[in-house]
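Appendix C reproduces, verbatim, an entry submitted by the partner laboratory led by Prof. M.T., so that reviewers can inspect both the input and the predicted structure.
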Amino acid sequence: MIRLRKSLISRHLQGRGSRKMSNAKDQITPGQLIFLITQTQIGVGLLGLASRVHNTAKGDAWISVLLAGMLAQLFIFIIWCLNKRFPSLTLFDYLPKLLGKAIGKLIQVLYAVYFILVSSFIVIQFSSTVRDWVLFDTPRWIVMGIMIGVSYYLARESLRTIARFFALVFFCNIAVIIIAAFAYLHVNFLYVLPVGQAGIWNIAKGAHEAMTSFSGYEMLLICYPFVEGGSTMKLKAATAANIFTTLMYTFAIFTSLIVFSPPELELLPQPLLYMVKALSFSVVERPDLYFLSLWVVVASTSTIGYLFMASRGGANLFQARSTHRKAVPYVAVLVFVIALIFQAPNMIGPLSKFLAIANYVFVFGIPVVLFMISVLFKEKEARGSIG
């Protein structure tokens, strides 16, 4: 009996020790949080954003993007207020505490499904773009498999490892900006005049079109307790990430607006790629392929971020919070299967519209409700360990 008790105590201590070790590996700095959120935000949507927003807001598309960035900042603030009440817990940890075990588990499942669907949509867009520009005859499932394989390899690592990789990839964004800046040798600023031509309503609708491209800041719901420093530092880091994303999107759209005439923009699905393709360098042929190579690396980080969040949710459902890597293979397979199912052109549109609505629900609606419940019922973490 004594031996049995010693054995149970030993196992319990080993479990606590492994969880602490796992939490230590997941610890990141506020600076790494900036890269983590930025790279999860900037992904596939960068290439086609100008075309989608221009269809609604016309020459004021750049204003719509700025408005979308401000709205995203509001959502970040709400998420921060919620996390501040549970500083050492992730979303999946405090959901059952606020909503009860049954409803909490249901919302956990819905969040995991949402992250999986977003990952699948990113993979679908990625494979479509790569096939249209480079791998014309390659089956789409092979391109999807490569993307998911690379993302799987990194998503199974610790949060700190992912953040370090994102920090390296961040400089690809700077290279993308530099390449696109060469287009200013041939621009016409009259294309964006007069400012406000689309009207307030169309500018607002354009902001709605841009909101899905800002998705990624919900990473704060998962990684908040693993970020070192106080709550104010975490808010500043998330804000800095969103400001960079907003400025980069605004630069990309404004550049597209002054390079192409309005009729041309209506015909181009990826204005940035066509813009870079038109550039001519004495020592570089087909600059669009170099641009696309950088974009592929940037786009992969968005998939990695959502795979990580989905795996965290799946592992938490099975009481394996410190071993999310065990859930990554199952999540990756689900993402691949869903991407194969929804790759048909007539199915991509409905999926995109569904995710646009779901984005507001999961990054704004549910966090607001949770925050209100925690305030009204005075639910707040007094003492706890990192989830």
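The chain has 16 helices and no strands. Additional entries are available on request from the coordinating office.
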